[in-house]
Amino acid sequence: MIVVTGATGQLGRLVVEGLLKKVAPGEVVAAVRDPAKAAEFAARGVQVRRADYDDPASLVAAFAGADKVLLISSSTPGQRLAQHEAVVAAAREAGVGHLAYTGVLAADTTTLSLAPDHKATEDAIRASGLPFTFLRNGWYTENYAQTIGQALAVGSFVGSAGEGKLGGVPRADFAEAAVEVLTGEGHEGQVYELAGDEPWSYADLAAAVTAAAGKPVAYQDLPVEQYRKVLVGAGLPEPVAAMLADADRGIAEGELTSDSGDLRRLIGRPTTPLAEAVTALVKG
Question: Which domains does the chain possess?
Answer without folding.
Answer: 2-137 (3.40.50.720), 143-165+198-258+272-283 (3.90.25.10)
